[in-house]
Design goal:
The chain is mainly alpha-helical. The chain has one domain: Winged helix-like DNA-binding domain superfamily/Winged helix DNA-binding domain (Arc Repressor Mutant, subunit A, Orthogonal Bundle). Helices cover 44% and strands 7% of the residues. It contains 5 helices and 3 strands. It has a 3-stranded antiparallel beta sheet with strand order 1-3-2. A hairpin with a 5-residue loop joins strand 2 and strand 3. The protein is elongated.
Length: 135
C-alpha cells in the first residue's frame, strides 16, 4: 500500500508554483535549477503539463515555459492524474490487481472510502496557491 506521490508529481506541482511566482514564464534551465532537478529530466516533468494545456513551451533563445491561462483552474488532483494516471484505477490495495467482481477483499470498503476522501481533498486544493494560501 503506497499512499505517496511520485517525485515527478511533486516537481510538476513545484513547476506550476514557480512559474506563477515568477511572472508566468521562465527558461528551462532556470526552471530546472529552481526545482533542483536536471535540464534532461525537466521535459519529463513538463510534458504532461504542456499536453494538458496548462503550460506552453517554446524553444530557442526566447523559449522556455509559460503558464497558460487555463493553469489557474488546475487542482492538485488534476496534476496527480496527469502525471500518475487515474486515481480510481480499480486496483485492490491488498492484491495489487483489480478486485475481482463481487468478491472484494477485506480492505475494499475502507480503502475505497479513504480514497474518496483523499480525492475530494486534492480536488479542492489549487495547484497554484494564491498569495496567503498555504503551499
Amino acid at each position: 500500500m503506497n499512499l505517496g506521490l511520485q517525485r515527478r508529481t511533486d516537481l510538476a506541482l513545484g513547476a506550476l508554483r514557480v512559474l506563477a511566482q515568477d511572472g508566468g514564464s521562465m527558461p528551462g534551465p532556470d526552471l530546472a535549477e529552481n526545482l533542483d532537478t536536471t535540464t534532461s529530466f525537466l521535459p519529463q516533468i513538463m510534458s504532461p503539463l504542456v499536453k494538458a494545456g496548462w503550460v506552453d513551451s517554446g524553444r530557442g533563445p526566447g523559449g522556455g515555459y509559460r503558464l497558460a491561462d487555463l493553469a489557474q483552474t488546475v487542482s492538485v488532483l488534476d496534476v496527480i492524474e496527469v502525471t500518475e494516471g487515474p486515481t480510481a484505477d480499480g486496483r485492490c490495495v491488498l492484491r495489487e490487481a483489480p478486485c475481482p467482481g463481487e468478491e472484494t477483499c477485506q480492505a475494499h470498503a475502507v480503502w475505497t472510502a479513504a480514497r474518496d476522501v483523499i480525492i475530494e481533498g486534492f480536488k479542492r486544493i489549487s495547484a497554484i496557491p494564491t498569495r496567503g494560501e498555504s503551499e
